[in-house]
Design goal:
Elements: E1 23-28, E2 31-36, H1 45-59, E3 66-70, H2 76-81, E4 87-92, H3 95-107, E5 113-117, H4 120-123, H5 126-132, E6 137-140, H6 149-158, E7 162-167, H7 170-180, E8 184-192, E9 202-209
Parallel strand pairs: 3-4, 3-6, 4-5, 6-7
Antiparallel strand pairs: 1-2, 7-9, 8-9
């Protein structure tokens, strides 16, 4: 990737394929994934299974729920939980990742997912809820900066019974959970050691809608 900017971001740049395939393959549980150069995917594959299993356990899906998967990336979590949900809608702001997400559903013969490209702060609106149905469960796995305030507000308005918040930055996660506390109660958290011998962890939080 040729980057002439003064930062290390590449999601807005086009990778140049010199040789071989334009993707790598990974398998988490019994789900196979194809991952493009600009698509986010967890780096510790062994612990990724632990991470996603923790999120699935917190969700407690019965097969009748509509699930929103925010910052879905390559659809890794969406496809992982789809077998236990009625429908999963993934939203992601990297277009190549959305292409990977759709392909990953296809190669795993998963029929109950839908992936939408767009800026989540602008996409997740009242109109979006009207067009796609209100979520029963929301899974959100934002970047280190956490969620945009508009996204937090829409989560509060969604009426979802549960929010499963996965974060690689407990500081911004705590900030967002504080904002969600108007409507949601923090039930429990589970840290997952994705980066051994470092200070970093992934943290899974379960929030439930207040009565």
């Amino acid at each position: 990737t040729i980057n002439t900017k003064k930062n290390s971001s590449i999601t807005d740049l086009k990778p140049i394929l010199c040789k071989g395939r334009a993707y790598i393959e990974e398998e988490i549980g019994n789900i196979k994934y194809r991952i493009g150069a600009n698509s986010f995917f967890q780096t510790n594959s062994y612990q990724t299974y632990t991470l996603y299993s923790s999120a699935a356990e917190f969700a407690g899906l019965s097969g009748s729920e509509t699930v929103y998967d925010l910052y879905t990336g390559t659809g890794s979590i969406a496809n992982f939980v789809a077998k236990n949900a009625k429908k999963v809608i993934g939203i992601e702001y990297v277009e190549e990742a959305i292409d990977n997400a759709k392909e990953n559903s296809e190669i795993n013969n998963i029929k109950n997912t839908e992936f939408i490209f767009g800026d989540i702060a602008k996409t997740l609106t009242g109109v979006f809820f009207q067009n796609n149905g209100l979520p029963d469960i929301i899974i959100t796995d934002p970047p280190r900066s956490g969620m945009h305030p508009d996204v937090v507000n829409q989560l509060c308005e969604s009426g979802a019974k549960k929010i499963i918040y996965i974060s690689c930055n407990p500081a911004t996660q705590a900030r967002d959970i504080g904002l969600l506390a108007e409507k949601y109660k923090l039930e429990k958290v589970q840290a997952v050691d994705m980066f051994p011998h470092t200070m970093h962890v992934e943290n899974v939080a379960l929030l439930s809608l207040k009565k």
